[in-house]
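During the reporting period, we have paired protein sequences with backbone structure tokens. One record among many follows, to show the layout:
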Amino acid sequence: MEAKTNSGGTVEATIKIGFGEKLHSATKIAAVIEALLEEGVSPAEALRGVHLQAGELHLPTTRISLNQMLEACRNAMKLSRNPHLAFDVGSSIHLSTYGMYGYAMLCSTDFRRTMEFAVRYHQLATPLTNIVFEEKGKYATWTIVPLAHPRIDAPLYQFVTELQIGIHISLMRDVMGASFAPTRIAVVCPGSETRLTQELVGCPVLVEEPTTQIVLDTAWLDKAPTLGNRVTHAAVLEICDGLLVDLGQRSGVAGRVREVLLENIANRADFETVAKRLRTTERTLRRQLRAQQTSFRELVDELRMQLAIKYLRDTDMTGEDIAVAVGFSDAANFRHAFRRWTRESPSEFKHLATDAKLPFDR
């Protein structure tokens, strides 16, 4: 049997929500901050630059952006004395942390469908990574790739990766039982830098691999869920569908503009065309984007940047080809824009990504 489930299908499908949009639950950021507080770090230090008050962490109405989540991770890297903090925080996150998203996985009647659900509804989990689940022969793999964010440097890339590995193992133990253990884990970073050990994760850890993967025996997928219930799962699935719709609606007109732009970013629609597609006037669209603290140019730049980072990090495309793919008239204009976005040239970025097998290391 072969099966593959992708969290977006294409590169473009994974970036329809802006990094600065406050759309996500605060449960994951709360886990990071709580770990720092347990070490004696003050709330003010733990939340420095996050633009969130300690009292807001556990409010069901609190919504955060991915930028805020990444800032909390950066604080954790600077302030924690625990070398395994990322994995430990990930391991502390359980299905109950994710509300209906977690409950749907818990009451699923088929582990393969559970994996498919986890990928399809991943946006409900404040995602810092893209995930792909693939089953081939005796083994199944989770492939984990941190988001293409301009401020994810090599240490933060490693932190986010280890956080997600901890989350994955914890959730799979919640679903499959406490005895669950992967067959092996592969990480892209060098052995001298990874903090993951066999003793910590319960299986061999391979380093300097092309991609980060959690590999498991497909025999785990053949087991019967002990808490599965078809009626309950169907009901909760409907709720999760509504939550995804709500997430899209809360992204507002900016999200709708992104969808239009992503249809063909290489030959992107101009502002007038986008306004017509959304059946509104240019003046109204400009005002609506301003109300969301963004602009058409900022949305175009953000999408181009994310796609360029993905292409440089994950493909062998030349700078000239990437320039065309993301809608620049020539490579020189692309190089200028890329340096403005990341403070590095495309060639510098590519060189560091190739040498370190990481996005980049400033």
Remarks:
- The longest helix spans residues 154-176.
- The radius of gyration is 21 Å.
